[in-house]
Every structure is written in C-alpha cells, then in structure tokens.
Amino acid sequence: MSLLTRFKTLRGLRAAPEPELPEIAKTVAIIMDGNGRWARRRGLPVAAGHRAGTRALRRTVEAAIDYGVETLVVYAFSTENWSRPQDEVDALMEIFAETIERELPDLAAQGVRTRFIGRRDRASVELREQMTALEEDTRDRERLNLWIAFDYGGRVELVEAARRIAEAGVPPREIDENTVAQFLYAPELPDPDLLVRTSGELRISNFLLWQLAYAELVFVDTLWPDFGGRELHAALAEYATRRRRFGGR
Predict the structure, then answer these.
(1) pLDDT of 5 over the 80 cut
(2) CB distance 207 to 40 below 8 Å
(3) Are 146 and 112 spatial neighbours (Cβ–Cβ below 8 Å)?
(4) Angle made by CA atoms 70, 114, 207, in degrees to the nearest 5
(5) What mean pLDDT is predicted for residues 173-197?
(6) How far apart are CA 198 and CA 204, in angstroms?
(7) Which of 17, 40, 59, 155 has the fewest CB atoms within 10 Å, counting from its CB?
(8) Which residue numbers are catalytic?
(9) What is the model's pTM?
(10) How does 199-227 read in b/e, with b if 16+ C-beta sit within 10 Å?
(11) 78-116 residue pLDDT tens
(12) Structural contact between residues 29 and 208, judged by C-beta atoms closer than 8 angstroms
C-alpha cells in the first residue's frame, strides 16, 4: 500500500464517539471526615462534632433520595479508629447506638434500607443486636440502600476474602475477579460510581479498596458536619462532567 493510499484510508476513519455523560451517580460512597476539626474550631468537645455529623448524615441521605441516588455507602468507623483515645471511642460507640435508635428509623420510614459492612465482633453485644435488628426491620425498603461501614478496613476485607477463598477450597486456577468479589463482605454492594471525601483531605484511607477501582473521586473542603444537600448536588454535578472509559477510549 502506497503512502498516499494509507493517508486517504486513515483520513476516512472517524474517531470513536465520546461516551455519553452520566445523568446521575447511582452508587455514591462518602468518607465523612472533619468532625473533630469542626468541634475544635467551635471550642466544643470532639463528641459534639460526631453528633453534628449524624445530623449531616441524615440531611445527606434525604438529599440522596431526592437526587435519585440508589445506593449510598458511608465510612463511619474504620479498623484504625480503635487507636483513638478511649474516651473518644466510647463516645463514638454511644453516638453510633443513638443514631441507630433515633435517626435511622426515621429514614426507614422514608424507604431507606440500612445495612452494615465490616467487622462486628469488637462491638458490644447490645450494639450488634441493634445493628441486626435494624437490618431486619428495613430489609423490605427499596427507595435507597444505605450501607454503613463500621469497623471496616479495605485491606482487612481483602485478607479475609482471600482466607475464605482458601477455606472454600477454590482451585487457584479458577480464582478470578468474580471469585474475589463474591467473597467480599457484601458481594451485593455495587461498585461506587462516585467517591466524595470531605474536609479537604486527599486520600481514600483504606476505604473500599477493591470496589473503588474505577470510581470518580471528588474532594471537598467542607467539614462533614456542614455537609448536606447543596454539597452533595455539587459533587454529583462534578461527576456528571466526567467521561468514564474504564480503561478504554
């Protein structure tokens, strides 16, 4: 083929069309960060920041419903958070129990199904019973799926998945991405389309390491207790400008 013929052939090829912009991120993950700084700036105890954070969670869940988000997964307590001062950990456990008792049932009345992802063996018996009861009571809700990551760490999840695969006797040559996904804490949890982190920090902090492989990341300066519908809308609008190729063109 002559150089002129090749040039004509290439000129006749059209570039692949750009993928359509998404209308909405159906699955949104949020790292709820900044409660402590919010409290310190106001001269309040850290626990006050965590309680303000529970109110921000409710606002955000209700806004997610309005915007058409189908699944919301939030990072409430990490495996590393146990290393915080004992009085703060105790306060967090108390606030967590209060949230389950007072805030989440109202969301259930709005059609929110709540489930928990992560370890439970280090929580008190009473807290574990509350978590289980809420999951049972909301299992028929379909308006929005709320996943709360409690005592969760992405690396621990992957280690435990590998251990369960080995215990199940899966032949090594049969292990693929689908196999690993089936042995995660919550195989039915969709991979997030969008991750939002508040407070200006620019890292994912061991959150959903497997599931976030192709998520769009949005970092905002707003401290979590000040987060709400307007901030969620802005993050969703930013997501809608992204063109997701998943490694392709």
Answers:
(1) no
(2) no
(3) yes
(4) 75
(5) 98
(6) 11
(7) 17
(8) 33, 81
(9) 0.89
(10) beeeebebbbeebbeebbbbbbebbbbbb
(11) 999 999 999 999 999 999 999 999 889 999 999 999 999
(12) yes
